[in-house]
Amino acid sequence: MEHAYEELTDQVTRTDARTPYADGALAAYRWALGAGGSGPITGTPGAAPPDVERLTAEVDASVVQTEDRTQSAAGHAFAEGVHDVLTWVCGLRDGAP
User: Fold this and answer.
1) What is the mean pLDDT of each run of 10 residues along the chain (97 residues)?
2) Which of 13, 34, 36, 14 is nearest to 24 (CA)?
3) Is there a domain that residue 60 lies in?
4) What is the span of the domain harbouring residue 28?
5) Nearest CA to 3 among 35, 29, 21?
6) Taking CA atoms, which of 15, 23, 42, 84 is between 20 and 30 Å from 36?
7) For residues 35 and 33, what is the distance between their CA atoms, to the nearest angstrom?
8) Largest CA distance in the chain
């Protein structure tokens, strides 16, 4: 997971490709690695790194955000980045985003 986080960070830095999706993905990586403090979607504080229960709660919250039709495009993309990373971290998705 640390390697995937570092690769994405390098890619964003090299290409100046900072997007809401990348911001969400990076926030999810930082949080899952224990450096983010509060959940990237819920803002719920807790011990670092988060346990499986907290990880899956953030996945669920990200699904709600991505399905919310009133969500801005940037908010949707951020939630999608969080979702893609955390589903991979939880083993629900093949391949790091």
Assistant:
1) 77 82 94 90 89 94 95 96 95 84
2) 36
3) yes
4) 2-89
5) 29
6) 15
7) 6
8) 35
